[in-house]
Amino acid sequence: MPAMSIWNQGVRHDVIIEPPAAISSPSLAAFLALARTRRSIRRYASTPVADDLVETLLEAAIWAPSAHNRQPWRFCVVRSPEMKAALSERMADAWRQDLANDGADREIIEQRIVISHARLTGAPVLITPCVTLEEMDVYPDPVRSQAEWTMAVQSVALACQNLLLAAHAAGLGTCWMCAPLFVAALVRQTLDLPEHWQPQAILTLGYPAEEKARARAPLSERVVWR
Q1: Which superfamily does 42-221 belong to?
Q2: Rounded to an integer, what distance in angstroms lies between the CA atom of residue 114 and that of residue 111?
Q3: Distance from C-alpha of 198 to C-alpha of 201, rounded to nearest angstrom
Q4: pTM, two decimal places
Q5: Which residues contact 114 (CB under 8 A, 6 or more apart)?
Q6: What is the tens place of the pLDDT at every residue in 27-72?
């Protein structure tokens, strides 16, 4: 029966995860336990994350499958408190304006900004995954061009899932934040990234300072068999 480690404020707690009865492979059971216990973590301990551990997680990411094996992912690792603050503040300015244009209450807007700022600046590490079409196929028609773009984005998402699971296996917490999709040019400019790097998300990373338990909808509600 596989054991899974859950971390709370840098302290490890081992729990037993019961695998489905039909699973006999120890490695598959261990993976299912890993996948079922990963959660989005939004509060982190101040414990730093070693550079070599971050590199190991990125190494796990780049072994994901990709369209044509072109590996269209790029990653920006942000450690500097000053850069985290600048990124958060500039994104907040744009978000504040969007919410105001939507007619949101000013007090609610500021509450949401404060929460977002705490998440971005409170994580020891931010990782910004980006997609590039630099090495992808080029087509003259919009249908195939859109398909190529979608394949590249899917490839980046697959790499990110590898990273999230590897982080969980290492006792780290992560949270996928999609805000850069709304302000990709601003994020790229703030982080001084190449023009062809298109930010897709921000992954916060650190040792968890909270525990999460959330259920999933029954598989039968999400799958059809033909």
Answers
A1: NADH Oxidase (3.40.109.10)
A2: 5
A3: 10
A4: 0.87
A5: none
A6: 999 999 999 999 999 999 999 999 999 999 999 999 999 999 999 9
Query: pLDDT tens digit string along 73-121?
Result: 999 999 999 999 999 999 999 999 999 999 999 999 999 999 999 999 9
Three-state DSSP class for 191? coil
Is 98:163 a contact under the CB 8 Å cutoff?
A: no
In the chain, the amino acid numbered 32 is L
Q: What is the 8-class DSSP label of residue 72?
A: -
Residue 1 has pLDDT above 70, yes or no: no
Side-chain-side CA neighbours of 226 within 13 Å: the count stands at 0
CA-to-CA dists, residue 69 to 26, 73, 175, 189, 215, angstroms: 30, 11, 27, 28, 34
What is the three-state SS of 5-31?
A: EEEECCEEEEEECCCCCCCCCHHHHHH
Query: Looking at residue 25, what is its pLDDT?
Result: 86
Start-end of CATH 3.40.109.10 domains in the chain:
42-221
Q: Look up residue 51 and give its two tokens.
A: 């550079």
Q: What SS3 state is found at 43?
A: coil
Contact (CB, 8 A) for 83 and 191: yes
Which residues pair with residue 4 across a beta bridge?
15
